[in-house]
């Protein structure tokens, strides 16, 4: 999708004599800022489950089961990039413990399957060829490994992670699943082992390995450290959604789903939400679900409730038993990408004249610009309520407003409304709470000569990067 232009050439902050607002609360690291810009990428769930029709394998599956007959990660990458997604995160190992790469730490791996090739290598190569980022999911919970539940397994897990982070080029995200065996383990032999998932994994030590081997990688888990689970697998962030959270209160497998869904307004850390959801009811391919692939309408709704509510979207598209993305999934994914392009094809903000009730450094009026990176709208220190009005020479018909805060300096806005001028009267289109990296407001089409964005409450002076009108 065409990148939203940062259209407000704000005299205020672009002008050298105007000071930047002070940061407000925790702010994102550079790696988090880069991650916010990706917005959407694809999850690929693929393991023995694809062939046994399970969602959680038992760990006693034979390597011989994994036998995709036409597996082609270039087909996946081609579809994903055509749909405008920016990367792929692959389940290198799911809970069943089967490894999709040539690992030297277990025989339970793809080299001993009929497939016989290193799929992590093939997917990472395909991603590079198609200009996509590549990330890995490595399940902490392992129903195959005999040492699971003892300290020896933690060494095994870290060794595997090190292999993945060392041998496959740049990794943009590492996914640490919260489903990590805390409430019991049922092996293929009906064996049960219980661990205390708060202490067993010693996560901070493991996270150091990621920092050392892949300093730019974002780590996902219920407790970050870089991005957080959104608290559900249905594809929505809270309408109120702060990028901040008290990180110390969370850990993988220890999730307060309400807090994860909404963030915490005065949270101690920048820990933005990632929305994980599957294009099918399950995470793995099952033929019986071919008729239940999410439609473009459902996917668009997810788009507005994830990216449009200050989250990133990781959409799972599982390959079938051939090792190909099924034609229904592929058609819907590509149509989804096209629908996003279409809905945001024309930004009327580029034709509007903007005026604000307060502009940092006294300027009252500023022009729209198509040049990205020229500045942003900020108010004077202490001004936490202000309006920004976009006027048009001729009436335009709109149905969406995109708002973006200048998050490099933190998340501020607590409440805002949007209004349209219709026949000389201001009509309220919506009133909402947070904005963050991106907030998209949808409403019935309205024909108007002006749009007004009212920031009604903010934790500090306002700093908005972008207003898009569609
Ligand atoms: C969950 C897992 O248990 C599912 O199988 C899937 O991998 C999903 C993304 O995370 O916690």
Helix and strand layout, with pairings?
Elements: H1 11-14, H2 30-38, E1 40-44, H3 49-52, H4 73-82, E2 87-93, H5 119-129, E3 133-138, H6 151-167, E4 173-175, H7 203-213, E5 218-221, E6 227-229, E7 244-245, H8 257-262, E8 269-270, E9 273-278, H9 296-306, E10 311-316, H10 327-343, E11 353-356, E12 365-366, E13 377-378, E14 386-405, E15 413-422, E16 425-432, E17 439-458, E18 463-469
Parallel strand pairs: 1-2, 1-10, 2-3, 3-4, 4-5, 5-6, 6-9, 9-10
Antiparallel strand pairs: 7-8, 11-12, 11-14, 13-18, 14-17, 14-18, 15-16, 15-17
Helix pairs in contact: 4-5, 6-7, 9-10
The structure holds beta-L-fucopyranose.
Percentage of residues in DSSP E strands? 15-25%
Enumerate the spans where pLDDT stays under 50 for 5 or more consecutive residues: 1-12, 363-373
Query: Can you list the strand order of the major beta sheet?
Result: 1-2-3-4-5-6-9-10
Structural classification: alpha/beta
CATH homologous superfamily descriptor of the largest domain: Glycosidases
Shape: globular
Helix content bin: 10-25%
Please count the beta strands (DSSP E, at least 2 residues each). 18
Q: Which ions and ligands are bound to the chains?
A: beta-L-fucopyranose
CATH class of the largest domain, anyone?
A: Alpha Beta
Main beta sheet: 8 strands, parallel, barrel
Radius of gyration over all CA atoms, rounded: 24 Å
Tally the helices. 10
Termini separation: 14 Å
> What number of domains?
2
Folded structure, characterized:
- The chain has 10 helices and 18 strands.
- With 470 residues, it is of the alpha/beta class.
- It has 2 domains: 39-343, Glycosidases (TIM Barrel); 348-469, Galactose-binding domain-like (Jelly Rolls).
- Strands 1-2-3-4-5-6-9-10 form an 8-stranded parallel β-barrel, surrounded by 5 helices.
- A hairpin with a 2-residue loop joins strand 15 and strand 16.
- The protein is globular and about 70 Å long.
- The two termini are 14 Å apart.
- Mean pLDDT is 92; it is low at 1-12 and 363-373.
- The structure holds beta-L-fucopyranose (FUL).
